[in-house]
Design a protein that fits this description.
A hairpin with a 2-residue loop joins strand 57 (664-665) and strand 58. The protein contains 6 helices and 66 strands. It is elongated and about 95 Å long. Among the domains are: 2-257, Pectate Lyase C-like (3 Solenoid); 496-678, no CATH class; 697-806, Macroglobulin (MG2) domain (Immunoglobulin-like). The protein has 807 residues and is mainly β.
């Protein structure tokens, strides 16, 4: 009886379905008024499930949205399979999505061309380009998606457990600011490519997945199969650039590549032409992003994109911004004052995921703007070198400068970040879960916001292994903000350390903190933080300027912030893990008479100067302003002179102070960033090497240095007696005299300070340079343990020194 009832129910259901299909109608659309409708949306809106909307050729400038109907939208290609019909039946989204399928529908589309930005305008705000599919199913046949733009997904955005089937679909010349220039699909969606009628996806632009981005599919046990007739490049696995895969199981087979990969240095100039070869300065390309598409990613012999001096922007010469970065590629501008990329207040600049062996240098990035993507970011990358970069008046996704997340072996040197006034977070340097992060000569200056709650403004570091030297955070203004933040609190990062020396934190103002307890916040629950020879002065906040949680070792630090309530608060007992930590503070000066501490019995104070004035040079020299680094040098009457740690062994201090002068004068180190009465650093060279000329004084530290998973990098610092005619070059040789690494510098500490606007001329002898070497050769291969010779050449002068690399 039950089976008979079930059969009856099925039969009735099928009869009902056939009845619905039998009553399905075809609604016709043409622009000339000869059919039922002149708008596709009008026909879709009155359709019922199983209806067909049949569209005659023409350019339909509209944004179609389906309305919970399961329908077919087709051009005349379905009755006359002429490819010209596809090209001539156009849905033009006019800077918005051409069609949105977002309400659980099952839709079939056949025989259209989708465009929404054929003119290449730079003002779109839509989050998906040609087609957006959410919580729905789409079968897309015999169609073209081209010249579409979106913040995320230029061509088609498929998300939230949607299903899509591609058959003979061409997706090209689309652009996304973030993920998926051609296709973005994520959050459990299912994608199928018709093997009998293959599709092609090529020549698209984005920062994550030029052509295809697969994002957060980690629970798909059956691989997503990407089988294409044509892609930008022949691939059998994701390369992170053309195809980006994050937390997903994907199988890739691309039969043919549309973009020739040129295994040669490429040259780009503002007046170049993308029809040129690009292989010489005499035949440069015009578009930086196109050069990145074409240059080969060669791990054995990395190639360089050379950017000529001049202005690069969308309006001036059609630059495609923001831009992705390939592995094993260097981008070298002519210098931060020479090569200028302008975001024109509506685009940002660089982004890369899963790249390795990348260098970017020698450029100024100005007027970047986006609330959706970063100004400049690297995610899940390794072996990254960024130097001689300025970010000026930029804002992107809560940052005003550089973002490094989940990266390893990152070196940042000679960067200027700031001069941005925006409504909230303006993190200039953001470091998140990074291992082996080395930074020197980082200048953060003149960021301001009036947002009233918990802003990140200057340097923000989470759960990272960081060594930072010779840097300044200054002239930041906010209502409620951190201008320096470091925190490592998770056991996964228990080996990570924080080590800072020669850091100036000056003239920053936080007027009314409510969320932020102290604008300088430092915590590491596993390793004592090392803070040496720093000057924290003239910062203004109602409460404590600095708060340190867990363990710390502070030496030779000046705390003098007369506009603040108190100098330093130490919380060395944490109830969250019921742990007490020892704190050591020695040879440091405090404006206040006492230091607040939650476990004072674990606080060791040695040879500190309490309740005193450091007598900075600016207090006796009226020509100096509190915004200038020179102000914080020591005057002759300073109690900080010769009051530093008697024994500096093991502190890993820079041999030079922040002005490039000898770190220890008169047999004793001073407190703070500057050494009083010091001369330029004089190197004690190896006796087996020829003595250096008097003009160049070179130092390397640490020496020996480790090149391992837990540490990697040697700081290279030198001074010149005067500004050089040509910029200095660092060459590193193995013991057999073979050149293994070349580092070219375009900026000195002096020029950086001047460019920041902190001062005109630094009061010191000569020019001071600082950079980092990661123990690898020009092809980013790790070098063997042994002795290497570092040679610095400037004009006609040469200096050299030995360094030992250990593994």
């Amino acid at each position: 009886m039950y089976i008979m009832k079930l059969r009856k129910t099925v039969i009735v259901g099928l009869l009902c379905l056939f009845g619905v299909i039998a009553h399905a109608v075809t609604r016709t659309v043409s622009l000339d008024g000869t059919q039922q409708f002149t708008s596709i949306q009008e026909a879709v809106s009155v359709s019922a499930s199983y209806d067909t909307v049949l569209v005659y050729p023409g350019r339909y400038v509209e944004n179609v949205a389906t309305n919970r109907q399961n329908i077919t939208i087709s051009s005349l290609y379905s009755v006359n399979p002429d490819p010209q019909i596809i090209e001539n039946t156009i849905i033009d989204g006019n800077l918005d999505s051409c069609i949105k399928i977002c309400n659980g529908e099952v839709i079939t589309i056949n025989g259209f061309t989708f465009v929404n930005n054929e003119m290449g305008l730079n003002t779109y705000t839509n989050r998906g380009g040609g087609i957006v599919v959410t919580h729905s199913s789409l079968s897309l046949f015999n169609s073209i998606i081209r010249n579409c733009t979106g913040i995320h997904a230029g061509g088609i955005n498929v998300s939230n457990r949607s299903r899509i089937f591609f058959s003979n679909v061409q997706i090209y010349d689309n652009k996304a600011d973030g993920m998926g220039g051609g296709i973005l699909y994520n959050v459990g969606s299912q994608i199928t490519f018709d093997a009998d009628n293959p599709s092609s996806v090529y020549n698209n632009h984005a920062t994550r997945g030029m052509d295809i981005c697969v994002y957060y599919q980690s629970y798909n046990p059956v691989p997503i199969e990407i089988n294409l007739a044509i892609g930008s490049k022949v691939l059998t696995e994701a390369d992170g650039y053309f195809i980006h895969v994050h937390n997903a199981n994907v199988a890739i087979n691309i039969a043919q590549g549309a973009i020739e990969q040129i295994d040669h240095d490429l040259y780009v100039a503002p007046d170049g032409d993308d029809n040129n070869s690009g292989t010489s300065p005499a035949s440069p390309l015009k578009t930086i992003a196109i050069a990145m598409q074409r240059i080969a990613s060669n791990p054995d012999n990395p190639k360089t994109i050379h950017l000529a001096p001049g202005l690069y922007s969308h309006s001036a010469n059609g630059q495609i911004l923001p831009m992705g970065v390939k592995s094993n590629v260097k981008v070298q501008g002519a210098g931060m004052g020479e090569t200028i990329i302008d975001g024109e207040l509506n685009r940002t600049f660089w982004g890369s995921w899963y790249a390795s062996n990348v260098e970017l240098s020698g450029m100024k990035l100005m007027n970047g703007r986006s609330i959706n993507v970063y100004v400049f970011c690297f995610y899940y990358c390794s072996d990254i070198l960024v130097y001689d970069i300025e970010c000026y008046n930029c804002y992107g996704c809560g940052t005003s400068g550089l973002n490094f997340s989940y990266c390893s072996n990152v070196h940042v040197a000679n960067v200027i970040l700031g001069n941005t006034h925006y409504e909230n977070d303006l993190t200039a340097l953001w470091v998140w879960e990074c291992n082996n992060f080395y930074a020197t000569n980082v200048f953060v200056n003149e960021n301001s916001t009036n947002w009233s709650e918990s802003n990140q403004m200057g340097i923000k570091i989470y759960d990272s292994d960081v060594y930072i030297r010779n840097s300044i955070v200054s002239n930041i203004s906010a209502v409620d903000a951190w201008f320096f933040f470091y925190q490592t609190i998770y056991e996964d990062f228990a080996d990570y350390k924080f080590d800072m020396s020669n850091i100036l934190l000056i003239n920053n103002t936080v007027t009314n903190p409510s969320w932020v307890s102290s604008p300088i916040y430092i915590q590491n629950r596993y390793q004592p933080v090392q803070i040496n020879n720093c000057t924290i002065a003239n910062n203004s906040t109602p409460g404590f300027v600095c708060r340190i949680l867990a363990g710390a070792d502070l030496r030779n630090v000046i705390f003098h912030n007369q506009g603040s309530g108190s100098e330093l608060s130490i919380k060395n007992y944490l109830s969250v893990n019921d742990t007490a930590y020892p704190i050591s503070i020695s040879n440091s000066l405090f404006r206040s008479d006492t230091i607040s501490c939650s476990k004072p019995e674990l606080l060791t104070l040695t040879d500190n100067i309490m309740g005193a004035n450091p007598m900075f040079l600016g207090t006796v020299d009226s020509s100096l302003n509190v915004s200038q680094p020179e102000y914080y040098q020591l005057s002759a009457s300073s109690p900080c002179i010769d009051s530093g740690t008697p024994d500096t062994e093991g502190l890993n201090l820079p041999p030079m102070d922040l002005a490039g002068n000898y770190r220890i004068a008169n047999g004793r180190i001073d407190m703070g960033c500057f050494e009083y009465g010091s001369e330029p650093y004089v190197d004690v060279d190896d006796p087996q090497l020829p003595p250096p000329p008097q003009g160049i004084n070179l130092s390397l530290y640490p020496n020996p240095f480790l090149n391992s998973s837990s540490a990697m990098g040697v700081f290279i610092e030198f001074t010149l007696p005067k500004k050089p005619v040509s910029q200095p070059v660092i060459e590193i040789f193995n013991i057999r005299g073979q050149l293994v690494k070349t580092i070219k510098l375009t900026e000195s500490y002096n020029s950086l300070v001047s460019k920041v606007g902190l001062s005109g001329e630094v009061e010191q002898n000569g020019e001071f340079y600082s950079t980092i070497w990661n123990g690898k050769d020009n092809n980013n291969r790790s070098l063997a343990s042994g002795t290497y010779i570092v040679k610095v050449t400037s004009d006609q002068q040469v200096s050299s020194k030995k360094v030992t690399l250990l593994k």
